[in-house]
Amino acid sequence: MATKTQIYKEVLREYDRIRTQKTAEQRRKKAFVYEQTPRLEEIEQELSLLGVQAAKAVLLQTNQMTDVVAGLREKQQALLREKQQLLANMGMQADALEQEYVCKSCQDTGYIGNVPCICLKQKVMDRLYDQSNVRDIVKVENFDSFDLRLYSDKVIPKEKMSPRENATNILRHGLAFVERFEKENGENLLLYGSTGLGKTFLCSCIAKELLEKGFVVLYLTAGQLFRKLEEIRFSHDEDVEKEEWDKELLEVDLLIIDDLGTEFSTAFTASELFRLLNDRKLKNKSVMISTNLNAKEITNQYSDRITSRLREYQVLRFFGEDIRFLKKYQ
Questions:
Q1: What is the largest CA-CA distance in the chain?
Q2: For the chain, which end, N or C, has fewer CB atoms within 10 Å of the first or last residue's CB respectively?
Q3: Is the entire prediction scored with pTM above 0.85?
């Protein structure tokens, strides 16, 4: 699992590889062209020399500077016309010997001045999708495919509303969570209810929206999370990447823990869960948890202090028929 820092380093190394490749391609192309038409190499050298002469004329600021620069510019234009004609004779464009770039805006550096180029943002986002564990999932599980018709519109007396009405409220809360996320970080969500009611689906919807807005989202099942934490805590190897991964659990904009309670529960998992929730709260970083457990079961499996911490979360309760079953046999 790469951290955000590692992702940026990896992307910048990719830019280095692209520039090296393009420079090598340009060198080979020039060697071929010069071999076919030696005059083109002479023109390139003469153009470079003219550039040096023009710079000297400006620095010297002689009385004849304007005339000298005009004369040099005229020679430059004549050489460029000759170069263009020679390239045309070879069936090539006027800019055939210029450096090629995958992205002309940043010239394959990733930055325009000190501002990240859109291509850099896209490359980083692609990697964020890859490591967030939701790239394939969000293709089918997103707000556009959130189908309220799957939920029954029959009122459940105990709940005093229908599953569809409840799902509509949940959808509204999910969209509002995304909207608020851009303005204020630190809000937390707890989704609970029986299996197959759409908790994981909503997690995917929110992950996709925030990833596309450039936020760093890490989506893990409880089993994946605690296995990784065990690996970090009990490994005797000095591994910088493991330390950075542990740090990233606290730094990502949104940490999604899916299916909390399905992992093998130990004193270690309870301790690490509390540490994670508490440290992220202190850093004002958001957490989103889905679970099949109710408040009492969470207390029994973990501890009172974890239950107390989760009471601070915005709670969305799912109820109704198994949507996963309905979708499968619909």
A1: 97
A2: C
A3: no
